[in-house]
Amino acid sequence: MAPKKKTKATKKILLISLIITTLVYCTYLIGTFLKYETTDNAQVEGHIYPVNPKVGGQILEVLVDDNEYVEKEQVLAKIDPADIELTVAQARAGLAQIEAEKAAALSVMQSSMAASKAAYTNIAVTKAKKERLNTDLVRFTNLKADDIIPQSKLDDLETNVEVVNSQVTAAQQQYLASNSQYEAALKKISSIDAAIQAAKVNVRNAELKLSYTEIKAPSSGRISRKMIQPGQVVRPGQPLMAVTNSTDLWVVANFKEVQVSEMTIGQKVTMTIDAFPGKIFDGKIESIAAATGAKFSLFPADNATGNFTKVTQRIPVKIVFEPTELKDISLRAGMSVIVKLIK
Fold first, then answer.
1. Full-prediction pTM beyond 0.70?
2. Do 296 and 263 contact (CB within 8 A), yes or no?
3. What span is annotated as the signal peptide, if there is one (predicted)?
4. 173-208: buried (b, 16+ CB within 10 Å) or exposed (e) per residue?
5. What separation in angstroms does the CA of 17 have from each of 22, 103, 221?
6. CA 182 to CA 13: how far, in whole Å?
7. Hey, which residues does 75 pair with through a beta bridge?
8. Are 50 and 242 in contact (CB under 8 A)?
């Protein structure tokens, strides 16, 4: 009889212990539910920069491998620059030709300016000579009327006056012609200046395309999804690889819409990450999305058509780590996270 009583007593103790344990666990779950908001629909996020060529061509070299760490502006791959180098040479030759045309036009402008000044001076000299001869003509006419001088002197003076008149007219015509040539050269230089600016733009554009033959890292980080090999022909915008920044990381937690009513910016958060069991990470809410995740899906739900089934929506919440939390911790974008915050 004694062993049976002992067995019954043991069963009672085990039953009571199980009931107490269940009650404690239920109490804990209820307390946690009332005190905390939690979700396991969360993951680590980071900047993933696509690497795309800006010019097309054949890949000469690939200088990195998958998962290799690179610095910003480090050369990742090189495209054959031969065709673009020819374009640069042509653009520079075109610029040199236009600059030579400008130099010639400047020379014409300077020579026409000098000719214009000389013609202007000649006009002044011939007009002064004309005035002097006209004065002499009046005096010689009076002297001839009194038979003081012979007719031959008066005739010579009249001839000289006609010659000077022709010289004045020629000087004036030369002055006008030089001015016209100067103005034409000036207009040509203005149009050449515009052509030089366009040629410089062409040179700069060609040089810029030449620089694009070196494909550089848009950010520091690790190489991911490398999809190119030497000899491959690529086109502008084609995805070649990606650079994942592993230093600027955050968490996006997708809480149910009924959980976010009391959430505020700056609210403290604790997190656990599956890759680091037992370690608790501290963080805070940086922002709450302005729309549910479903609104940004490829085919958002349209509740105005068909039968309606209510589905609890989730709202993305961005959580940032405290500054010292990631020291000596190597997180990766996409890692699963469990987020817990006090109500």
1. no
2. no
3. none
4. ebbeebbebbeebeebbeebeebbeebeebbeebee
5. 8, 104, 54
6. 119
7. 216
8. yes
Tokens of 198: 């366009």
Element (H, E) at 252: strand 241-256
The strand order across the sheet containing 233-234 reads: 214-216, 75-79, 57-62, 233-234
- Which segment of 100-109, 136-145, 200-209 scores lowest on mean pLDDT? 136-145
Give the separation between CA 79 and CA 63, rounded to whole angstroms: 12
CB 130 within 8 A of CB 168: yes
For 91-154, give the DSSP string.
Answer: HHHHHHHHHHHHHHHHHHHHHHHHHHHHHHHHHHHHHHHHHHHHHHHHHHHHHHHTTSS-HHHH
Q: Burial code of 220-242, b = ≥16 C-beta within 10 A, e = fewer?
A: bbbbbebebeeeeebeeeeebbb
Phi, psi of 70 (to 5 degrees): -130, 155
| Run of H or E including 16 | helix 2-35
Where does residue 26 rank: exposed (0-12), middle (13-18), buried (19+ CB within 10 A)?
exposed
Judged by DSSP in three states, 56 sits in coil
Strands 268-273 and 280-288: antiparallel
Tens-place pLDDT, residues 149-177: 666 665 666 676 677 777 777 777 777 77
Structure tokens at 319: 């959580």
Strand, helix or coil for residue 265:
coil
Query: What is d(CA 190, CA 184) in angstroms, rounded to the nearest whole number?
Result: 10
Q: Label the pairing between strands 57-62 and 75-79.
A: antiparallel
DSSP string covering 156-210:
HHHHHHHHHHHHHHHHHHHHHHHHHHHHHHHHHHHHHHHHHHHHHHHHHHHHHHH
CA–CA gap between residue 59 and residue 81 (Å, rounded): 10
Q: Which tokens hold the place of 63?
A: 């200088």
- Beta-bridge mates of residue 285: 319
pLDDT tier for residue 226 given thresholds of 50, 70 and 90: very high
